[in-house]
Structure prediction request, 549 residues.
Amino acid sequence: MLAQEQQLELFQDVPGKGIQPKKAPNSTDQNRTSNPMIIKGNRLKGFIDGTNLLLDTSLGMNLLPLLDDNPHVRCGVITTSNTITRRIHNRIHIDKGLMLTANPSSINSTWILGRHFDFDVIDIILNKHLYELESFINRQRFSKTKFASILNMMLANLFNASNRNSQLLYSRNGSNNNKMLLDVIDYIENADLCLNVIGRNNEYQGNTSWLLPTAKLQQELNEAMAIVALKKDAPPIKMNARKKKQSRTNLITGKKETYYTRGKEIDIKKGFRTKALALKRLSKPVNAYNQVWSKHSLTLHDKALAPFCARVFTAQIYLGGRFYGDIQNIPKAERQLLKIDDQETIEPDFKAYHLCILYAWAGYQLNPEINNPYEIEGFERNTVKLAMLSFINSENLGCFKSNITKSGNPETKAIYQNYIREKNVFILRSSQGLEAKEPFKPPSIRGFIEGMPDGINGGELVASLLKTHHKIAGYFETADIENADIGLRLQFFDSEIMAEILTILSKNNIPVIPVHDSVRCKVDDLDFVTETMKTAYFNKTNFNGCITI
Prediction:
């Protein structure tokens, strides 16, 4: 530990020169920063433009950026492991280790800065920064149009991160496609508009670099009454490829483990040229919804959020299709605090949504308030509900039965409980900025479902489920092409119901937040929104939906 402290004492930050070796204690240096880094016991303390930096070497070198009068204290914890942390101006380098990025955001390329009126103010801000950016980069060739677009996008994303009290993740990949973005980020850092934490891929959580907006950026955009707006050419539809099954060696245990990577985004214009009319129809509700929000505001703790969405499909235009945006990532407890046009909100939702849809497909009315679909003798309601959700999305009935059986095996339960304890310790230590390694998840507990009674046989539970829901058993008992991707097909169907809901509400200038099986709206709009949900459900199924509040 002492060796780390002594090594850190060798450097200091000199304005205009960056990190420089320290001179002897009796020497003088007029250029030395007014707040040089100093050692106090085992704690290194310094200042970066109003940002108080504390480096506690007793905890594996914890770096805690605490911004004055800034709400980002909770999400600014980084831990390094046996490394030297280098600080240059508003930039921090982490050579290796665990980087904690609580509640992070990713860059949304469809966002720009906007204003409810008088866009000239935003143009003045952007032109000022564009002029300074050109001087900062100092190149013979400077594409104002391209750099202006990237600068606008980054300022909007940082402003949203500031309002959400989150960090903004990005990659410092040096490819040609990313170089202009990095130039803009380096300028924003130099202009004291963000704190730039640069890391490397690591063997723990895999996070690399992130930005933390400063109070200066927030003040500048708040004074301009800026908002996060949507680009005019923002694509209303996205298409992702299917997830890919891969394997890797766990660096902690040395064992092979299976995982799935998110499918890459497909260029929908090239891959679905023959589906132009269908794409136009699927896009209309998105465009109408986003247009409504140009006239209204969404806030959380009096800070504006970006409510915009796009429909996201998987491999085909009839799989998935739900409405996704940054706002859908907000936990349900926080969604209750959302305000639309400074008014309180409420969230009516469809009860037992997918089961009701399956019954409707089979030609039956299911009323979950009268006949609770999760009540099966011998099993707890929550257990049946979790099992049913897994059941609906299972591609293989035999695999589902196996998961149930092992979930009731006492030995497997003990392994699962031990894994959960280790994971909770990992989460706790990580949240406190302590060095932590994520525990290995044994293959024997893949697909484990909590709450299964000891000795349960998967075949017995499946038989009970199919017996209770015999009217829709055909969707699970066969594995033909018609019943393939049942989970994604259900998502597409519920997204079509949501699309009709949003179309009707948009025509009536009623702003809402879609959350798959629920709609958050103003309390004053509850009656109209609820009736709209009932109408849309009936129009798509010819049955009555069950809505709870």
